[in-house]
Amino acid sequence: MNRKTIAALIIPFILLGALLAPLSAANAQSSVEDSITLQEPAVTLGDGWTLDTTFSSETPYALAFGNGEYVAVGPYGTVMKSTDGQSWKALSKFQNYQLTSIEWDGSKYVMFGANAAYENDASYKPAEAFISKDALTWTKIGFKPGEPIQQLIWGNNEFVALGTSKVFTSKDGENWTTAVTLQKNGYFALGFAHDTYFLTSYDDNTVRISKDGLKWTSKKYDTAAGVQYRIWANNQYIGVGNGIYTSADGVTWKKQSKSPAGATLTFIVHNGSTFIATGYTDMVEGAARQVAYTSTDGVNWKKHDLANLQANIYILYPVKGGFAGIGSNDRQDSPDGTYSIFTKDGSSWSYRLAGTSYGTEFGGIATNGKRTVAVGLNGMVIYTDDGITWKGSNPFPYQERLGRTHLFDVVWGAGKFVAAANGGIYTSANGVSWKKEKVPFRDQYGGLRNIVWTGKFFVASSQVDGVYTSKDAVNWTKVESVSKDTYWLTSSVWDGKRLLGAVRVHDFSDGVGSTKIMQTTNGTTWSTVQTIEIDQALIAWNGKQYIAVDQYRANEVYVSKDGMKWTKSKTNLGENDNFEFITSFDGYFVALNDSMKEINGEYVNYDAYYVSQDGIAWREVRIPQADLAVSGSKIMKDGVKAYGKYIFVGYNGLIMRASELQFQDPIRILINGEELKLSSELGKPYIADGTSYVPLKAIGEALGYEVTWNTDKKEVTLERDGELTYFSNGVVLKNGRSYVKLRALTEFLGYTVDFVKANGVSTITIDK
């Protein structure tokens, strides 16, 4: 595709982005002093942890094509990349900059943005300029426009930048000249077509035109035509606005005889064989009724209803096999996410999630072993078949008054994915296309928050609408006995024989609740097991023991061996500790939350997970941090084990995964007084049935041997100084890595081994 075509396409994209900008805040960041390097997902954090920012983005303002890739930028440090214009990945954040414009000149990108805490601040805070060869490493340049830069275009071997009161030009993107002084804070739009720049002023209805960005000629803007965008095709300008128009100079317009009537058109694109013009026909409660018109000759137009495309088209551009684009929701207030749009010829359209919006979250995740699906607010659904590559599903419809469906939880059961949402229940066989099921709510505003599958029946619940059960996820029945006004099923767990639920009972006299532990074997008949003194409980089972933890005061817990008799206890956590969610992996309870501690008089936030075998003694394990300037919280909301990995999803569209979790106390290994450095990447030692296991290759090489594993003989060959030693006692495989019994190997090689445990750390010393 011609690079100049992409540059021209940016104009309405930026204007719409500015109009739709939500007023939201993010963590303020310091200014970039000299340069910043962004990272592509997924980012290795260390110790087996990976952070995936693919969907963690805001709806962008501007887009450029260069160096064989598409790059889009937007608020709160959003930088997105795509190699095909359809599949997008968000990079690590460009700190907290509100990035407003980007262009490519054939050898480098030039980008403008404001270092501002709020998105709307970009409309008045002075911009800073950056250049990059690869859209990853950016260098700050000395140009200071002294005002925001709203648009940037590369054409005729020159950059032209539109500020709020000036137009700037540059040949190289680094040395700039003020070309035009405009009315301060006026309403302007900058465009480029057929080697000509067009600067439209909507305040005094004039159009300035220029070939070089320096000398401009002012002409009258045709308000009757209301042209918002123009291209050059068929030896003439074709513009769209209050219809479709043609012009010899791009200023004086003639309406086509077959121009559509009753439509406001905002965009037009041509790939050499097909024209597509898009816009809307009317507005209903802020929702645009979108429409597209297609033509093969630019004269005869065919109308296409875009009712199924519930996302405003911000920009379209030709790609292999058709046209792609970016859009957001179909209301003119604030974006609910970023969507990748595709059409082959303008007649039928599809779109899928490409990025989240600030403050949204993935709240639930489920797997069937082959496919894993995560769901979240604003109808966000993503899926993966390997735990590494994630894709966006078909978006949920946008409902007038209700907005796009919020999805809170999801399970796999009865041969389908089943999600609990503010519209009720949605099901999908593949996690891509979803169907709404009928739940007998009292009104259209009913919704469900939690859902569990027992292998025989589903149970779904919410604080307002009560508890519902189903055997097939299609036919649902309300369970009146646990749907009282004062009841709220906050959490439940299936142990293979029965479902145990934590039902909060509200006390209207003081607002403090208690929790009834209740059980059911069929979803419809419930009985009370015991009442416990916890206001809002999270309940879990690790295969041997049950626990009910106060979600907001994790130092309070009830434990039970059989689920029938519960005993109150205190954990080793503080009264201000809380859990976002709790689950069990490999016989251990696991909980996640971001944590805060006072260090040297300052409160420091960090990410951590907590593990426990009995629910009383918990061990905090910090997750390695990375300076990625990720906006907002990194709290994880739910997790599963799939593909040999532990996968977590949470706030701001973030995904985290770990190759292994540290369930046991840390183990240090000292060899002749030197500590052996091990990690999740190399393999960590562990203890099973009182025996210490270490990664075979790491321990062998640390002892000075070259290690070879003979798969056929199930035997280890250890070579040192030309001497071969064979060993086959106690070699096991774990997570695709060979481990060996530490004492058996080292004593076989003539070493002595000692084991000491103190202060929660096990130390193994190996001496010759």
From TrEMBL:
UniProt-listed Gene3D superfamilies: Copper amine oxidase-like, N-terminal domain
UniProt superkingdom: Bacteria
Stretch forming the signal peptide: 1-28
Pfam families named among the record's database cross-references: Cu_amine_oxidN1
Protein keywords: Signal
SUPFAM superfamilies, sorted: Copper amine oxidase, domain N, Oligoxyloglucan reducing end-specific cellobiohydrolase, Sialidases
InterPro entries reported for this sequence: Cu_amine_oxidase-like_N, Mao_N_sf, Sialidase_sf
Sequence ranges assigned to domain Copper amine oxidase-like N-terminal in this UniProt record: 671-760
Name of the featured protein: Copper amine oxidase-like N-terminal domain-containing protein
Native organism: Paenibacillus nanensis
